[in-house]
TrEMBL record, chains A, B:
Cited InterPro entries: CoA-bd, NAD(P)-bd_dom_sf, Rex_actinobacterial-type, Rex_DNA-bd_C_dom, Tscrpt_rep_Rex, WH-like_DNA-bd_sf, WH_DNA-bd_sf
Binding of NAD(+), residues: 100-105
DNA-binding region, residue range(s): 26-65
GO CC annotation: cytoplasm
Any one Gene Ontology BP term: response to redox state
Functional description taken from the UniProt entry: Modulates transcription in response to changes in cellular NADH/NAD(+) redox state.
Organism: Streptomyces hainanensis
Family: Belongs to the transcriptional regulatory Rex family.
Keyword Ribonucleoprotein: no
Protein name per Swiss-Prot or TrEMBL: Redox-sensing transcriptional repressor Rex
Molecular function per GO: DNA binding; DNA-binding transcription factor activity
Subunit organization: Homodimer.
Major localization listed first in the record, in broad terms: cytoplasm
Length: 255, 255
DNA sequence: CAATCTTTGTGCACGCGTTCACAAAGGCAT
DNA sequence: ATGCCTTTGTGAACGCGTGCACAAAGATTG
């Protein structure tokens, strides 16, 4: 390698698949752990195992960032940590606001992993006047009336919504109007946002329902005689669930 | 969709695509809202709008469940609520345990949406002896020593892990050994589980990093002169970020 | 310097998921 | 009953993501 950096950006920053972007934080976490153990280099096979993915996938993912590996050796851990951090935008500081300081909002405010990597809680905001000024995670709670000013003064572009579902869209609209262009939504609501604003949602109840679906399927399989796969609590449930997924009558029939 | 292991022959779940399963809870939520407003029928177009998806996708999703619509009219709301609930396994009760009663675990225990739909918190478990017996969300905290017994007595097949990252795999192993076959993981760790166990992960820091990536890209676009799309805080950030994504020197160079 | 060994980077094929577009089906008015 | 109008259900095309398998590249050894 003659020069360490002679790649043209034309093909690069535009072409990273979304699926790859979603895995970069995973790689970064594994690499950080290696870095803390002062491991100098790592092969795609090892790193893939640590991140829980296929090694070919990992190599292809890295290939979108550039050719940062050395054949016959592997990847330089420190260098890769830096490259991925830079690609993810973690070399700069991202102030975020959390709106809705209930149980969940307070828990997130206290969450250490928040500040660890480029993210900084700029403000906690709540609509309840009795919350205003209270200390949560060593920080005063602001009233939602000041939302716009807080966003603008701090240059916040990422907002976290932990309000009840009913208030989420309203809060979202205000955040967006004030200049926020990325939203992490914990409220059980489908948010509507203008073009150019990114929303990611975290929904406990959806996750549980997906698990329940698979759990039910497993239980049905057990009942069907495909027993002895894993000694499970599901088997107990299966025995208890008399109505199979196909065996009962709808409570309500269509007209 | 996240198992810790490479091989994933699963996903042939009785013919319903995984992507569809993941959307069913969304439809169910929208339908429940309609049901509460006593709306008798709904078209795929309306429901799709409420759920934030494409109407053709919604119709195809429903087609995997059967032909529950009426051409020229739409879908019977109550009937569909029942069918989806049944498909997701929500007509039965799912006891869950939450392991790790810190800020997040306590917040989840208090979360109303938990019990709302088929899920019931059977126990709160923590490793800290000083937590044992304390009341959280109107429920006593159990010690982790009793984990296996709690799982078995209550027939728990779904576990929620809200421990620190370091303890997650250990807790996971014990849950699985005791019979749990579905795990919702909030700890920032890649869990390794045996075949037949489902893991879904919720990772705040990963979500934020993905948002940061897109945010950085937007800021770069703004700098490049594609201004005037949305009046954003990102523009302020873009102006402030002197080093563009291509313009600085790595802190660490490879050997 | 040449041979060997390790590991990357990627061409290729395959399968899943999404979307379009439309025929079939049912309701409704006349 | 007949024709019109609405909406479903789905065939087909397309694009994305994944994983295999291998050639190229560099390190290493004698």
């Amino acid at each position: 390698m003659a020069t360490g950096r002679n790649h043209r950006p034309a093909t690069r920053s535009r072409g990273i698949p979304e699926a790859t972007v979603a895995r970069l934080p995973l790689y970064l976490r594994a690499l950080t752990a290696l870095s803390e153990r002062s491991v100098p280099t790592v092969s795609s096979e090892e790193l893939a195992a640590a991140a829980g993915v296929n090694s070919a996938k990992l190599r292809k993912d890295f290939s979108y960032l550039g050719s940062y590996g050395t054949r016959g050796v592997g990847y330089d851990v420190e260098y890769l940590v830096y490259q991925i951090s830079r690609e993810l935008g973690l070399t700069q500081d991202w102030p975020v606001v959390i709106v809705g300081i209930g149980n969940l909002g307070a828990a997130l405010a206290n969450y250490g992993g928040f500040a660890s990597r480029g993210f900084r809680v700029a403000a906690l905001i709540d609509a309840d006047p009795s919350m205003t000024g209270k200390q949560v995670a060593g920080m005063g709670v602001s009233h939602v009336d000041d939302l716009e000013e807080i966003i603008q003064v701090n240059g916040v572009s990422i907002g976290v919504i932990t309000t009840p579902g009913g208030a989420a869209q309203q809060v979202c609209d205000r955040l967006v109007a004030a200049g926020v262009t990325s939203i992490l939504n914990f409220a059980p609501t489908v948010l509507t946002v203008p073009e150019g604003v990114d929303v990611r949602k975290v929904d406990l109840s959806i996750e549980l329902q997906i698990l329940a679906f698979h759990e039910q399927r497993k239980a049905a399989d057990e009942l069907a005689g495909n027993g002895a796969r894993v000694p499970t609590a599901a088997r107990r449930r299966a025995a208890r669930a008399d109505e199979g997924p196909e065996g009962d009558i709808p409570a309500v029939m269509p007209a």
